[in-house]
Design a protein that fits this description.
The structure is a homodimer of 320-residue chains. Chain A has 320 residues and is an alpha+beta fold. Chain A folds into two domains: 95 residues, Phosphorylase Kinase, domain 1 (2-Layer Sandwich), CATH 3.30.200; 203 residues, Aminoglycoside 3'-phosphotransferase, Chain: A, domain 2 (Alpha-Beta Complex), CATH 3.90.1200. The first copy, chain A, contains nine helices and nine strands. In chain A, the strands form three sheets. A five-stranded antiparallel sheet of chain A has the order 1-2-3-5-4, covered by helices on one side. The relative contact order of chain A is 0.12.
Chain lengths: 320, 320
């Protein structure tokens, strides 16, 4: 759950009074999300989300994240829009933490993924990539190749307790990916964490994208590889090629992948699988007992990684 | 926090489809409350709370609680109103648990209690007592005298670890209260747990009462004693007589206390203090480690109990 910091009614009212939002009508901590403290705030003007950024989000990155949401929203992406105070601030402080208010997005995130979801996801992802063009700030992908080495270090001693030989297998994979990692692919703003719980649907229509706190400047095709892993595998850990084809078809209805991107996809998918495997493994091994936080199985991503190692050609993903 | 059970988007939509509420627009777990799983649900018709009743609420009591909220709301009390499905049901099942949808109440609960809050609380409490007249169901107060003995048993061995001699002191207090507990006082529906987090205000006006899951049939003056303990003591554990006077004045602006009730108040206040001391002590000693649940200090109620032991006359509470 996601309320690490309590905010009182008086503190909230004082904070909200700096915006032009009318009277606060309700205020509730939200039990979803893990990293930050999130609150649903309703005022006489509308509904908003208040986020207090806890320690896992680097304060120095917040101007990038908030600036990006503002930029994308102004260019037609349905995403949370940071609110400005009367004096024009978006990034503020509350309870000693960086804090911001954003608009509330309607929609539900899908638990049972359909082919239609994947098609719309692809379309929205390409639209996001297009809308980010010209955004003046950049942020390196902290969880790409350079970020994997410290996670390998931190998990090496205990990785074998999750699966015998895992540390060695991850080291081998890391070395190969580091040696072969593509450069020169079309690059821009990517979301980098577009899992189903960050994508809202109303009825059958995609209604918005949330949680831009891993967004960064990296290869567009890497974002697609993240989505491929997160949306197109079944519970038995096999790839559903129909979903993958729908994802790519939706994407390419907005922006065509070039030959280098297609060729790089299996490697990018391995890298994306390694990235989520490593962060899940780290969280698994450094788990603070808590009945309410469900640890995500790192080995789900081991299975995906193994699959992509077997792929020679993006045709295996249904790409024409 | 209060989401013990996950509900998927499809499960929610199927559940909500049995009501006449339009399309589901958003759905969020709420991080407040401890006993049950609560979700904020917005539809094209309005805002609602979905509650899944977890094991600490007896399913057999739910018709009383839901029937009471319905009865009170129909008589002008601002409280959650259970929604009926198209076939007239309020109590249903979801994820193998009893479940109900109620209307959403606007308002914020006050952390910094003022005299004006206490006055309005007293007024609302008396109005609740009046509105409950004629409610056809009854429910014994499970946490009155008969309920204290099992809690004393369950905490006796370890109570001394919280405060040396506490078990013996509680046994003595229990015997005295059991021997002298008043009977024959004016009785009816009481809330029995009207702490600040169950009372909403909009601006300076009380806007509603929530959480009727300890409601029962008991002496009205006992409810007032609960409020006295929960609202009128300062952080240094001293009684603020001005707040107490405002509470009683607000109450008596709707319903006068009779002589027997006034006389019984110190004893009822001791009993109410013992009740919350015992449940907090039990929770303290049977605490499952969890970073997100803050244990409430049982000794706060020991200080209140000791204060009420020193009171001979309700005049000490500011009652004229």
């Amino acid at each position: 759950m996601a309320v690490h910091t309590d905010v009182t009614d008086d503190e909230l009212k004082a904070f909200v009074a700096d915006y032009d939002l009318g009277e606060v009508l309700s205020f509730q901590g939200i039990a979803e999300g893990v990293e930050n403290s999130n609150f649903a705030v309703r005022t006489s003007r509308g509904s908003y989300i208040l986020t207090l950024y806890e320690k896992r989000v680097a304060a120095a990155d917040l101007p990038f994240f908030l600036g990006l949401m503002d930029y994308l929203a102004a260019r037609g992406v349905s995403c949370p829009t940071p609110l400005k105070t009367r004096t024009g601030e978006t990034l503020r402080a509350l309870k000693g933490r960086p804090a911001a208010m954003v608009t509330f997005l309607e929609g539900l995130w899908p638990r049972r993924i359909t082919v239609a979801h994947c098609q719309q996801l692809g379309h929205a992802l390409a639209a996001l990539h297009a809308a980010g063009a010209g955004f003046p700030m950049t942020r390196a992908n902290a969880l790409s190749v350079a970020g994997w080495a410290p996670l390998l270090e931190a998990t090496r001693a205990e990785a074998g307790s999750v699966k015998p030989g895992l540390a060695e297998a991850l080291d081998t994979e890391y070395r190969e990916l580091a040696a072969r990692w593509p450069s020169g692919l079309p690059t821009g703003v990517i979301h980098a964490d577009l899992f189903p719980d960050n994508v809202f649907f109303l009825g059958d229509r995609l209604s918005g994208l949330i949680d831009f706190y891993f967004a960064c400047t990296d290869a567009f095709a890497y974002d697609l590889a993240v989505c491929l892993n997160a949306w197109c595998f079944e519970a038995d850990r096999s790839l559903n090629v129909t979903k993958a084809r729908a994802l790519f078809q939706g994407y390419e209805s907005v922006r065509k992948l070039d030959a280098a991107e297609r060729q790089a996809l299996p490697l990018l998918a391995r890298g994306s699988a390694l990235r989520f495997l490593l962060t899940r493994l780290y969280d698994w091994l450094n788990h603070v007992p808590d009945a309410f936080v469900i640890r995500k199985d790192p080995l789900e991503y081991w299975a995906k990684l193994r699959f992509h190692q077997s792929v020679d050609d993006s045709a295996a993903y249904g790409l024409a």
